[in-house]
Structures are given as structure tokens and as C-alpha cells.
Amino acid sequence: MQIKKTIEKVPGGLMLIPLLLGALCKTFAPGAGEYLGSFTKGLTSGTVPILAVWFFCMGATISLKATGTVLRKSGNLVIVKTLVAWAATMVATMFLPVEGVQAGLFAGFSALAICVAMDMTNGGLYAALMQQYGSKEEAGAFVLMSVESGPLVSMFILSSAGVASFEPHVFLGAILPFLVGFVLGNLDPDLKEFFGRAVQTLIPFFGFALGNGIDLNVIMTTGLAGILLGVLVIIVTGIPLMLADKYIGGGNGTAGIAASSTAGAAVANPMIIGTMVPELQPAAASATALVATSCLVTAVLVPILTGLWSNYMKRRGDTVPEPQQATPSERVSDFH
């Protein structure tokens, strides 16, 4: 049976399918993990420890070796997207309750959901699109995007926007596993390869654990809102990213569209942040459902829009020249 290949045909499927299975367990057998106990309980409720290991392994895959063009491209896109996410979060705090909208078309919308959906780019999707439509160095720009993985950037945005307050040691606790992995991976290539192999392997496990915190009734309630959020992510982040790519990064805007997605890793952030900040806990479940839908929507629409824009620019004769000394960065996975 081609189970893995079938799952991978679904955009973000390695994360979303196990998450859906976990949500089915939560909806129809909510007490199963507690009843069975032991390791089964660990699989259904171990989101944080599983993510801690994944975050450590993710850090080990990030390389210090990158050309100046790669750093300029990735830094430009990461900074602009973070600033846009911060601005969108600030606006959300003015109009949305902390616990999120409870009914109507925007049910589930909250500052938490908007922040998390907009601040992390699907780096694997971006790299794949740039390998097809851009230059090798543009494809390598996902190096810094991988650093966004995890809740740290979302925590900074929420804190600076006044949505939540985090003690310094909480920030340290959130980034420390990543930093330790980063140091070890750069000190020893064998460790980098060893830990890097676990990055994709762990994705279904924390996807399933995350799903066990989501009732399917929440997904049904927020389904349309999630689609709307995905479209908003593309529009709100895509336009500034296109302009930044063209006028700062020296591109033609294609890289900006390719970066206007929601990362699969972002699906985990609402629950993680909710455990740190009790006042955000009521919004965490619906935010997770919204972000999961946004991840799927952007994974489908962004490649289409990127291809259309790239072809349009080619017809105009506005293409990005391939750098002579381009060195493709290592691609970790299609998940981030």
C-alpha cells in the first residue's frame, strides 16, 4: 500500500491527516487516552514534549553557511512578513475579543489565530516554488524561514502587540532546545544529519497529539472562517512581500508570492502559547482549527498564484537572472 505517498499528495498532509485522525479520536472517544493510559496516553497528550524534540532536531538542520544573497533574500522576506503579522495582530486587538469571535462568519477569529497564521512561512513550499520559478539562491532563502519554526516569533509579536505578557525565562525556555540543536548541528555534520532525519518523522506524531486537543465540532464551526483566513494571509502578506522582493530583494515579486503561505508548523503554536498564557487558552482550539485550514488553503493557492505571476513576468521579459555562484541550501522538508 502507498499510504505515505497518498498522504503526501495532500498539501501539508503529513501534518493535517494525523491531526484529523486525532480530532476524530477527541470527538468520538475523548477519554480513550486517559482510559488506556501509559504510552497511549502519551501519544494523545504529549504535544509539548514531542514538539520539544522536533524543535531541537529542527535547530540542528540550520546551517551557518549561506551566501550573502541568500541571507539578504531570506532576511528581507522574514522581516517584512513578521512586521506585517505584527501590524495585523495590532489591528485584530482593536476589534476582536481575546477569546476570539464566538459566532458568525468570523467565528474563531482572534489575535492569536491571525498572528500565528501570518507570521510563519511554509519554507519547504517556498523552496520548491523557487526551484521551479526562481533562482537557486532564491530557493535557498528558506534558510532563515526555518528559524521561524516554533512559537518564539509569535510570542514576540503577541507580547509587543499587548495581547499577552511573557516572562524572559519563558522566551528562553521556548528557544533553548532550538539553540542547543543549532549549536550541535553546526559543530558536527554527523549530528546534523542524525538529528535532521527525525524532523519529518516526528511531524505525524505531534500532528496526532495536536488533533487530540481539537473537537471536530470546532472545525465544522470554523471551516469557512479558516478558508477566509487563508485568503487573507495571501492578500495581506503577499502584497507587501511582493513589493519587498522587487524593491529590496532585487527580484520581480515572484518570491514574495511564494512566501505568502501559512506554515504547517504554525498549527502547533496556538496550543503551545495557550499553555503559557491562560487567558489565551479559550481561543487556542479554534485558532488551531483556523490555522490548519489556512495552511491547507495557502498550500493550494500559493503555487497557482506563483506560477501565474511568474509566467506573466516572463511574458513581460522581467525575469530574475541566475547567479553564477549560486549554491543551493539544503532542503530540510516540505513541512515548515
UniProtKB/TrEMBL annotation:
Transmembrane segments: 49-66, 78-98, 104-129, 141-164, 170-187, 194-212, 218-243, 255-277, 283-306
Principal cellular location given in the protein's record: membrane
Superkingdom of the organism of origin: Bacteria
Localization of this protein: Cell membrane
Keyword Transmembrane helix among record annotations: yes
Membrane topology type: Multi-pass membrane protein
Keywords on record: Cell membrane, Membrane, Sugar transport, Symport, Transmembrane, Transmembrane helix, Transport
Kinase is among the record's keywords: no
Gene Ontology CC terms, in alphabetical order: plasma membrane
Stored InterPro entries: 2keto-3dGluconate_permease, 2keto-3dGluconate_permease_sub
Entry GO MF terms: 2-keto-3-deoxygluconate:proton symporter activity
Catalyses which reaction(s): 2-dehydro-3-deoxy-D-gluconate(in) + H(+)(in) = 2-dehydro-3-deoxy-D-gluconate(out) + H(+)(out)
Family as reported in the entry's similarity comment: Belongs to the KdgT transporter family.
Function: Catalyzes the proton-dependent uptake of 2-keto-3-deoxygluconate (KDG) into the cell.
The protein's name: 2-keto-3-deoxygluconate permease
Name of the coding gene: kdgT
